[in-house]
Specification:
This protein is α+β, with helices and mostly antiparallel strands. 22% of the residues lie in helices and 25% in strands. The strands form two sheets. Strands 5, 6, 7, 8, 9, 10, 11, 12 and 13 form a nine-stranded mixed sheet that branches. It has a four-stranded antiparallel sheet with strand order 2-1-3-4, with no helix packed on it. Strand 11 and strand 12 form a beta hairpin. Helix 1 packs across helix 2. The radius of gyration is 23 Å and the shape is elongated. Bound molecules: uracil. Uracil binds next to helix 5.
Length: 234
């Protein structure tokens, strides 16, 4: 890999700032000052330092975030802070949310730069269950609750969709709070499923994705990297 590219991959420097750092003598290669941007380096063997700090390429990263309200899962900068802005890792904006949450939805968000791993979680083919807790505007009790559970188990047709939702599991925790487990990730799916039942979601929280539950100790806005064992669960 060219040295200027290596510098821009491993630091916050752009290619042109990397060239400037080289010109300024801030970079050493195996202990010797180096100024040539086009020189090829062996990223596994060579010791490359910027102002005395050893640089290394980042591998694949896997992160869980307790997404707070008012944070967007987009790559573009917009009206709200982005989920990746909360992750204090180098090159965090290379991380992709694994299935988006709405701005007002809270809870477990996984982020990674491993596209194949993300696909195993998001592809409906893999039937990875995502569990949401919804606070509902209209109380549901008795026979109406039983009907809703049966409808969701069978699948409901959402406006503009051609096929009904895949069988899902609805459980009422109280008359206005329900847990919904779905294996798809359609646009605003949970809110639209409750709308199909004639209700409205007032607050939504994702509790788990497959075998990973949001840990109690992770406060809104906090994140941590997944352990190797957690990564292997998918
Ligand atoms: N379904 C929704 O309606 N919103 C979310 O944020 C996630 C799932």
């Amino acid at each position: 890999m060219r040295l200027d590219r290596f510098l821009s991959e491993t630091t916050e420097l752009t290619r042109s700032l990397a060239k400037r750092a080289l010109k300024n003598g801030e970079v050493t290669l195996n202990g010797e000052p180096v100024k040539q941007a086009s020189i090829h380096v062996d990223t596994a063997e060579d010791v490359i330092e910027l102002n005395g700090e050893r640089l290394a390429l980042v591998g694949l990263r896997y992160v869980m975030l307790h997404k707070p309200e008012g944070v967007e899962c987009t790559a573009r900068r917009g009206l709200y802070p982005r989920a990746v802005d909360l992750i204090e890792l180098p090159k965090a904006d290379r991380l992709q949310p694994v299935g988006r949450l709405d701005v007002d939805t809270t809870g477990l968000l996984l982020l990674t730069d491993d596209g194949q791993w993300a696909h195993r979680i998001t592809s409906p083919k893999h039937r990875c269950a995502k569990v949401y807790i919804a606070e509902l505007a209209e109380p549901v009790e008795g026979a109406a609750a039983e009907r809703a559970v049966a409808q969701i188990a069978e699948g409901v047709l959402l406006d503009d969709d051609e096929t009904p939702t895949a069988p899902a599991t609805l459980e009422f925790l109280s008359s206005t709070q329900a847990s919904l487990s779905i294996t798809e990730g359609r646009y605003h799916q949970v809110k639209r499923m409750f709308a199909a039942l004639g209700n409205r979601v007032e607050a939504l929280h994702r509790q788990s994705i497959g075998p990973i539950a949001l840990p109690d100790e992770l406060a809104p806005g906090e994140w941590r990297e997944l352990t190797a064992e957690e990564i292997d669960r998918f």
